[in-house]
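Reopening this one. Same input as before:
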Amino acid sequence: MAMPVVGSARTPMATLFQAKFTVNELLRTFNASLNSNILFSSDIAMLTYGKEDDLTGDDTYTGTAGATLEVNLGKGPKITGTIVPPFDPPIPISGGGTWASS
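Same output, byte for byte:
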């Protein structure tokens, strides 16, 4: 696995999950559907991945959001973070989306 990369993860609207990380000077953004009608933000999120090819194209994810964010992507990367403000109990989240780079 590569070193973790710091970025952010949030729901800009209740049905959209978005995570942004700068990897090797490229901004990688994962825009995905969200199965739960919740709003949350993690301004300091960590992305752990094996290879950069895992951060391209379409992918799916499952996880939970509550006091912390824990997301497992289908290709292997993981996104974790602290949600502010936290909520309890944690809510299961899942969906699918696309990685973009700029």
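So the earlier flakiness isn't reproducible anymore. For the record, The chain has a mean pLDDT of 95.
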